[in-house]
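Why does residue order matter? Because the sequence determines the fold. Keep that principle in mind as you read this record.
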Amino acid sequence: MTINRWHLLVSGKVQGVYYRASTEQKARELGLTGWVRNLPDGRVEIVAEGEPLQLKALHEWCHEGPERAVVDEVATQELPATQEFTDFRTTH
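Structure:
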């Protein structure tokens, strides 16, 4: 089993629309670990670890997000996995 780590920065109308909570729910459904948080500049930051197909599914979901979100861009960076996480959480 190959574990990868992706760092995603989501831009658009993604704060105040339940983007973080919805991301946490989706990531948990996919069996990913990591975290999601709001950034002061209005973007949402996600660090997720898991199998490549799971990460791709999260990435695709991030382009839509929850119903009230309007996503302009999802910038993605692949990094070495650290496997430091035990679950997926919303952080501040």
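Strands lie at 4-13, 33-38, 44-50, 70-79, 88-90.
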